[in-house]
Amino acid sequence: MKKAAPVCGDKKIEMIKEKELLPLTGYIKGGCSPIGMKKHYPTFIDETAQLFDEISISAGVRGMQIMINTEDLAKIVENNFADLI
After folding, report:
1. Which phi and psi angles does 21 have, rounded to 5°?
2. Other CB atoms closer than 10 Å to residue 73's CB: what's the count?
3. Which of 60, 61, 68, 79 could bridge to 33 as Cys pair (CB 3.0-4.6 Å)?
4. Whether residue 70 has pLDDT greater than 90
5. Which of 32, 38, 81 is nearest to 60 (CA)?
6. Under a CB-based contact definition with an 8 Å cutoff, are residues 47 and 83 in contact?
7. What's 17's DSSP letter?
8. 21 membership: H or E segment, kind and range
9. Could you say which DSSP state residue 56 is in?
């Protein structure tokens, strides 16, 4: 979280509380996806993802993932690669 906060333009960030997740995003815990959300939220991807042609992300349902081309995902989330790890 310490590395992510400045990337977001904030001094401090924290995870959403589980009880707030569904009303806020429309997703249950384990089913949050960086694509297809009801409302656009900034999404940041660790820069090491650029080393791979495809990566696995949540498909929006708990226990289901999709493989997506890293460049395609970057276009969807507005190329938000950053040093997060």
Report:
1. -65, -55
2. 20
3. 60
4. yes
5. 32
6. yes
7. P
8. helix 18-25
9. E
